[in-house]
Design brief:
- By secondary structure, the protein is of the alpha/beta class.
- It has a single domain (about 10-105), classed as 3-Layer(aba) Sandwich (Rossmann fold), CATH 3.40.50.
- It has 5 helices and 5 strands; from the N terminus they run E-H-E-H-E-H-E-H-E-H.
- The protein has helices at about 10-25, 35-45, 55-65, 85-95, 100-115, and strands at about 5, 30, 50, 75-80, 100.
- It has a 5-stranded parallel beta sheet with strand order 2-1-3-4-5, sandwiched between helices.
- The radius of gyration is 13 Å and the shape is globular.
């Protein structure tokens, strides 16, 4: 079973992602901490990890570090407000596969989640 793990702190955005994942048929699991992510990933390595890049930098780094030990390695997709180009650049340099503005992520969400339909 494919799985997308989502790490977002905004409850409204969480609801939007959850609803969209259900609509397109993509199993999505939400993790609220690095420990929870590790537990989820140990059960079944995710195909993708969606991350709100405005979260704690140590959390984002920990996700990447832990995921480097998974096989196969998940695709990392990050988003943040368009005014945070520095955060987007840092995420790209850190190894994220896709980094986009929050508005672009919201508009492309069905297509992004659609990539991971069972």
């Amino acid at each position: 079973m494919s799985k997308v793990v989502v790490m977002v702190s905004d409850m409204i955005f969480s609801t939007k992602i959850s609803s969209c994942a259900q609509a397109v048929g993509t199993p999505a699991v939400f993790a609220r901490s690095l420990d929870e992510f590790k537990r989820i990933a140990s059960e079944t390595p995710p195909e993708a990890v969606i991350v709100d890049l405005e979260q704690d930098e140590a959390l984002v780094s920990g996700l990447l570090e832990h995921s480097s030990q998974l096989s196969p390695q998940p695709k990392f997709i990050g988003f943040c407000p368009h005014v945070r180009q520095d955060v987007m650049d840092h995420a790209k340099d850190a190894g994220f596969d896709q980094v986009m503005t929050r508005s672009t992520f919201a508009s492309k969400l069905p297509a992004i989640l659609g990539e991971f339909v069972d």
